[in-house]
């Protein structure tokens, strides 16, 4: 007996085609960084001063002034920009910014990956132990 004809047009029946739901653009991370709560684990922040941020990938022509300008509006108490021992004119490309309060440090961390000069700089919590260790080497 002949098999019943099987329709091969099932896949073109528009009503059954799965359509991806439209993308909700409001949940995409397009808001400026400052408008988003920084994705920082507050437990990593120091419990007591100094509230120091490590600054990485700095342009070599950066100055303390440009760092203070970058963190404008935050309570910044000190900027340290280590220089090459063999060439004191040349910065090492990283530094530290010390803040007067934990909230300023927290806000500073939200500027991670923002541009300073022509570079996207890294802002992270300075490792306190490392920090002291470095100081001994720099000044001792």
From TrEMBL:
Residues 34-44 have a biased composition (Basic and acidic residues). The keyword Nucleotide-binding does not apply. SMART domains: RRM. The keyword Cell division does not apply. One of its GO terms (cellular component) is cytosol. It comes from the Eukaryota. Keywords: Acetylation, Initiation factor, Isopeptide bond, Phosphoprotein, Protein biosynthesis, RNA-binding, Ubl conjugation. It holds the Pfam family RRM_1. GO terms for molecular function: RNA binding; translation initiation factor activity. InterPro entries: EIF-4B_RRM, Nucleotide-bd_a/b_plait_sf, RBD_domain_sf, RRM_dom. This is Eukaryotic translation initiation factor 4B. Residues 51-128 form the RRM domain. It comes from Rhadina sibilatrix. Self-associates and interacts with EIF3 p170 subunit. SUPFAM superfamilies: RNA-binding domain, RBD. CDD domains: RRM_eIF4B (cd12402). Required for the binding of mRNA to ribosomes. Functions in close association with EIF4-F and EIF4-A. Binds near the 5'-terminal cap of mRNA in presence of EIF-4F and ATP. Promotes the ATPase activity and the ATP-dependent RNA unwinding activity of both EIF4-A and EIF4-F. Residues 21-48 are annotated as: Disordered.
């Amino acid at each position: 007996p002949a098999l019943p004809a099987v329709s091969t047009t099932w896949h073109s029946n528009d009503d059954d085609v799965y359509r991806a739901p439209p993308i909700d653009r409001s949940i995409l991370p397009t808001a400026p960084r400052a408008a988003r709560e920084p994705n920082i684990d507050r437990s990593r922040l120091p419990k007591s001063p100094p509230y120091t941020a490590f600054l990485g990938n700095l342009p070599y022509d950066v100055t303390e002034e440009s760092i203070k300008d970058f963190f404008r509006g935050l309570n910044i108490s000190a900027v340290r920009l280590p220089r090459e021992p063999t060439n004191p004119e040349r910065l090492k490309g990283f530094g530290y910014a010390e803040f007067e309060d934990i909230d300023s440090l927290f806000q500073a961390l939200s500027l991670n990956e923002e541009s300073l000069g022509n570079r996207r700089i890294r802002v992270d919590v300075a490792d306190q132990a490392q920090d002291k260790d470095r100081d001994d080497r720099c000044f001792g």
